Amino acid sequence: TSAAATGCPTCGMPAMEKGTEERYLVEIAKQQILSKLHLRERPNITQTVPRAALMTALRKLHAGRVRQDGTLELDNNVPNSRTSNQAYEIVSFADVDERVSAGTDTSLSFQFLQEKGHSVQVLQSSLWLYVRPADAPHHRGRVNAEISLPASSGANRTLLLQRSVDVSRGGWHTFPVTGALQAFLDGGQRRLRLEVHCEDGGRNLCSHEASGDSSHQPFLVAQVQLREDANKHALSKR
Amino acid sequence: SLRCGDDVSVCCKKDFYIKFRDIQWQDWIIAPEGYHMNYCMGQCPQHLSGSPGIASSFHATVFSQLKANGIHTAVSSCCVPIQRRPLSMVYFNSQHTIVKTDVPDMIVESCGCT
What we know:
heterodimer, A: alpha+beta, five-stranded antiparallel beta sheet, four-stranded antiparallel beta sheet, 7 helices, about 30% strand, B: mainly beta, three-stranded antiparallel beta sheet, two-stranded antiparallel sheet, about 10% helix, elongated
């Protein structure tokens, strides 16, 4: 009875004033969220992604099993590997490098920073590109889109993949870049540069700048998983 | 599992919701709009120990043995979360990359006595 009177029978702490209690709980919530997201402090957002670009990416990303309040629909019969293995998804919007982009080539760069003490295993990654429709009314309908790594230190550019895409109508196309992203992250670099070439009659169909529509900004989606560096070393040794 | 109210003094789940806008975190957390930081509170009298939900655990078996043998005077029972849900979050990290992650065990769903 005496414990109940103090307000917190479980931990035996005296009851706090209502305002104090609320501030205290908010602080706990903040710490809990930062800790679970492996962040030391809240990110300082100095530049914002255009809302249209954000909405496009989120629509592509958002799974049907997430409710409005962020809780997940769980199927108890299926083990949830995504929550148990610290897997998460990232969306990185491309910065278009105007100095390098020329003619029918577009140079995209994506910035990544890995946490200290962790390396990342890329489970799946795709580059999302909006390909604009070709101008010609009687166009044959398809062009070749090429994704390459830029030339570096005397070596030529490396072609990652080439695909024929339908340009009779504009639309989003995905290009798998899992291996390239993994190699980039394993190399400990910060900025991934990709060159895109998809032209039709000298017209760059993959340049979102020319369309002036921010909802067509290219982005890279990756499903990744944290792995401890110690485990990685142990595996290499074996 | 009980939900806390004015007339509940035994172990129960207290709902507590924080809107990210209220703490000025809406600029970096895109979704959801807030966080249900529910927690457990209340008394755990002896007859409620080990219930509900954890009867199959090793600890519950040990407690049952202690109770059956009358060795419960030094044992206190605590009101703790016995069921949690993951939370899916979409946010900007410091590099302005959008991250979507399913954080396990973030939301307390129900409480019980150890």
